[in-house]
Backbone:
DNA sequence: GGTCTTTTGTGAAATCCGTAACTTTCGACG
DNA sequence: CGTCGAAAGTTACGGATTTCACAAAAGACC
């Protein structure tokens, strides 16, 4: 039954959850896989298949209860609770992340920040003080932190990832433009706008032999 | 032969290109699929297969010429030239994007910015003046712009996407937390740190029945 | 309570993608 | 000039995902 769920499925669940949140706010109380699929550009069959990995949540002939499915998904994903993050790297990018208002409302709170630059140590960034990077591992061992955010320059990134792992972190959001290596029991996701751009350009090479 | 290349393959090419750039900087002149694979956590077979969609670039018994393969990939991807971007939305997020130093060196230049807030119009952001959003479509028809970046709040995002499409844009990088709808001939990529977080939490729910 | 409509849940088929294994080519060396 | 080792190119297989299509369930209406 709950035998090894494909990662692609897990990656789609937050998208479903977000759509359901919006439907709930609009006051919708039920939704069909058809309707949800149109909202998200996904086939209804895929939605039903994905959900079927976890149980039976719909009513035949009716569809899914919006609030019911939403809270089920939130529980499955673990986004029904508060998560504690630490931010490593408080340069321009790191500061933008710290000040980004999108994490808080979703239950992701940055509880500590770290940087190698002595000038930044002690400053307040997004409400929490900046610690020296040397204290990172010790800090992780003495405070609960669930997820690490890496926002340092590429050359420093792998070493930061290693420190996070050594500190017992099992989930990392990496903004640095590198392919970081982590042990099998650590999840890592990459945010890389440049890679996204570079894969789009393939499709818009116009006025070229072979271009669209 | 060059019949319909899978999108996953296209998405990996920029990663290869980045690794090759670094190898080139280190002065390496040849690399085997084995060595490149270890660097990137990809199997050698996958690298060879991916490249074989486009031609034969290696020498048996030796490996790939680093600079040669790099420039081939850059050409295939179209990242061997300058691309002109426009940024829509100059709030906190938009400003961070405009000031982000990562695009320029890769040939992506923001040539114009747009916002709905009258207070921002006329200000300089990252070297280019902010235009009123009403001028977007007209601007696109009278200037060359290859890619649009959407950095507006969720409720406004679809309408901005529509305007970009109406203006003839075929590639969009979307930072807004929505699933945007675009015609089949438009490529769109999403940057969404929250979704990335929310899919990671599934794997780190500890101390739960069923958690790891 | 029976029938009709709708939409789920699901097994099977189809497709897509990755991996492994084999063949070929290249350079080196004797 | 022939043999050997290494690594690319390629084909075939297998596994993973997606799609399809149908049976079963639920409410609505009479």
Residues:
């Amino acid at each position: 039954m709950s035998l090894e769920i494909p990662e692609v499925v897990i990656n789609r669940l937050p998208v479903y959850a977000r759509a359901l949140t919006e439907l709930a706010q609009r006051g919708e109380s039920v939704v069909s896989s058809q309707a949800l699929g149109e909202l998200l550009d996904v086939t209804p069959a895929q939605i039903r298949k994905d959900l079927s990995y976890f149980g039976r949540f719909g009513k035949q002939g009716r569809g899914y209860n919006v609030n019911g499915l939403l809270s089920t998904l939130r529980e499955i994903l673990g986004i029904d609770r508060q998560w504690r993050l630490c931010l490593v790297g408080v340069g321009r990018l790191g500061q933008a992340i710290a000040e980004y208002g999108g994490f808080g409302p979703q239950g992701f709170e940055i509880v500590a920040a770290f940087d190698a630059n002595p000038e930044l140590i002690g400053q307040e960034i997004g409400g929490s003080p900046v610690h020296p990077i040397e204290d990172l591992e010790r800090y992780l061992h003495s405070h609960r932190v669930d997820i690490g955010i890496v926002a340092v320059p590429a050359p420093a990134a792998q070493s930061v990832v290693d420190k996070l792992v050594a500190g017992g972190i099992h989930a990392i959001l990496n903004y640095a433009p590198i392919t970081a290596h982590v042990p099998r029991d650590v999840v890592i996701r990459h945010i890389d706008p440049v890679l996204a751009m570079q894969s789009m350009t393939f499709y818009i090479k116009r006025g070229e032999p072979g271009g669209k």
